[in-house]
Specification:
Blueprint (H helix, E strand, L loop, with lengths): L7 H23 L5 H8 L12 H4 L6 E5 L6 E5 L2 H23 L1 H34 L3 H28 L5 H22 L11 H6 L2 H10 L7 H7 L3 H12 L5 H13 L8 H6 L4 H13 L5 H14 L4 H29 L1 H24 L6 H19 L1 H11 L6 H30 L5 H16 L9 H11 L6 H6 L5
Antiparallel strand pairs: 1-2
Helix pairs in contact: 1-6, 1-7, 1-9, 4-6, 4-20, 5-6, 5-9, 5-20, 6-7, 6-19, 6-20, 7-16, 7-19, 10-11, 10-12, 14-19, 14-20, 14-21, 15-18, 16-17, 16-18, 17-18, 17-19, 17-21, 18-19, 19-20
């Protein structure tokens, strides 16, 4: 029997996919944060400067968009305030990455329909490498357009990666390891976030001389992927079910499993291909209209909208505000952010290590439940800041509790479930839909949260609390466990909920092959 071994070919294929795709997604989110002031100082002139130690910028609530420098002899601080036009340009430079991600996510189904899984991953690297070259040239060309355009291109790349990478690594993995393998997608996102934070320290390459090379570093994983991935196998499911090439699928499966005894998995794929024989690859509109996958679609919408609406980005934003309130030295905040990044990576490793024992549903449920509880604690501590200074530290603890819940549950498992719940013909469109919704609501949170914070003050996290509580209840009542099951077995579970009559003879065929 096949399916039990983790081979070198499988490890290399998964590693290259997540390094090339998932790592860059995380890296390009964090890499612009620390050197932002350096980049702004290079491109913008600003409109005013205060040398008396009182920051005009702080009075204008624009501390995120200033450039600071110290005069060693005078010991005063000068801060450049961006003009409204400059502020708009910088805001576009940062946020256009997320807009590109939304576009890329909705293009996932089209790309894999044209190229397949492996060659879609290879084709995507054109965006990454082209974008890196443009960013490297932005400084000598003195052109911020050479930052804005590639940031959009890298966003499209990241949006595609959130769909294609989980699809590829999920389809090549044995079912008993599929969850742990797919959780590596989220792990490399967090590693990419951490790498961006570390490399952007002024002690490394986050300097006025090297910031353009820091941004261009994103092409390195793409070059590695282009060098190695062509020698890795295509997804056997894609070859057999989509391309109808059973011999190529068998050869790919033999390489991935390290044995010639792969007929059990081939038969399972044939059963799925037979069930999908009347359907070509479905579009997003088709899956939205298909009543046989109605509850899978509901679940994708709930978890992929719920993930950004847990407030993960808002919580990270507020962590900086808390550190500022605690009068933490500005130079130390980058190192504290790195510490938070390390904590996030370690907890994601924990999730990877326990997912096949604990299962998807328990981790997802308890992860969201912890996030809900942390919002309660955070709201209470912020409301009582005037009562005791100790509440400030409780609010910091609640942030770390939130990160704990997010990292073991919603962070990695939303992507896993989205890829696992659908048959082959619906999977690309389902990932396009789920990833697109995730990116869209990340944009919404980024745009709306500053206004929420202004009008709701310490009660701003009540919105995220309510959303998290609703998602937790939905998971407990509706979501099916998918651990150690074939894709079609998972579909069968939802078919019962969808009210689809299951033929008993077909049910027998779907029992695990011994």
């Amino acid at each position: 029997m096949s399916g039990g071994r983790v081979t070198c070919v499988l490890l290399v294929s998964v590693a290259i996919a997540v390094i090339g795709g998932s790592f860059q997604y995380g890296y390009n989110i964090s890499v612009v944060n620390a050197p932002a002031k350096i980049i702004q100082e290079y491109f913008f002139e600003g409109e005013s400067c205060d040398v008396n130690g009182t920051s005009i910028v702080q009075q204008n609530n624009a501390t995120d968009y200033t450039s600071s420098y110290a005069n060693d002899s005078v010991k005063t601080t000068c801060e450049i305030v961006l003009t409204p036009a400059e502020l708009l340009i910088w805001s576009v430079t940062v946020s256009i990455y997320t807009v590109g991600g939304m576009f890329g996510a909705f293009m996932t189904g089209i790309l894999v329909g044209i190229f397949g899984r492996k060659y879609a991953l290879l084709a995507m690297n054109f965006l990454s490498i082209s974008g890196a070259i443009m960013m490297a040239c932005s400084k000598p060309a003195d052109s911020i357009a050479l930052l804005i355009i590639p940031r959009f291109m890298l966003g499209v790349y990241a949006g595609l990666a959130t769909g294609v990478v989980p699809m590829y690594i999920g389809e090549i993995s044995p079912k008993q390891y599929r969850g742990a393998v797919m959780a590596l997608n989220q792990l490399l996102i967090t590693v990419g976030l951490l790498a961006g934070q570390v490399l952007s320290l002024t002690e490394i390459i986050g300097t006025p001389e090297l910031w353009n090379l820091l941004l261009a570093f994103t092409c390195v994983p793409s070059l590695i992927e282009l060098a190695v991935l062509p020698f890795c196998p295509e997804s056997p499911r894609c070859l057999l079910i989509d391309k109808k090439d059973e011999d190529a699928a068998r050869d790919a499966l033999k390489r991935l499993r390290g044995t010639s005894d792969v007929e059990a998995e081939i038969d399972e794929m044939k059963n799925e291909a037979s069930a999908d024989s009347a359907e070509s690859q479905m579009s997003v509109l088709q899956i939205l209209r298909d009543r046989t996958i109605r509850w899978q679609i509901y679940t994708v919408c709930v978890i992929q909208i719920g993930q950004p609406l847990t407030g993960i980005n808002a919580v990270f934003f507020y962590l900086n505000t808390i550190l500022e309130t605690a009068q933490v030295d500005p130079d130390s905040r980058n190192y504290i952010s790195v510490g938070v990044g390390v904590y996030n990576v370690l907890l994601t490793i924990v999730s990877v290590s326990v997912i096949e024992k604990a299962g998807r549903k328990p981790l997802l449920f308890w992860g969201w439940a912890v996030a809900t509880g942390s919002h309660v604690l955070l709201t209470l501590s912020l409301s009582l800041l005037h009562v005791s200074p100790a509440m400030q530290y409780i609010s910091i603890v609640s942030v770390f509790i939130f990160i704990t819940g997010f990292a073991i549950g919603p962070g990695p498992i939303c992507w896993i479930l989205t890829a696992e719940m659908f048959r082959q013909s619906a999977r690309p469109a389902a990932l396009s839909l789920g990833c697109g919704l995730n990116w869209f609501f990340n944009v919404v949170v980024a745009l709306v949260f500053p206004f929420m914070q202004r009008f709701m003050n310490q009660y701003v996290f009540l919105v995220f609390l309510i959303v998290s509580a609703v998602v937790t209840a939905y998971i407990g009542m509706v979501v099916e466990e998918t651990k150690n099951q074939t894709f079609q077995e998972i579909s069968r579970k939802f078919e019962r909920r969808n009210g689809v009559k299951v033929d008993l003879e077909e049910e027998e065929e779907m029992k695990p092959l011994k």
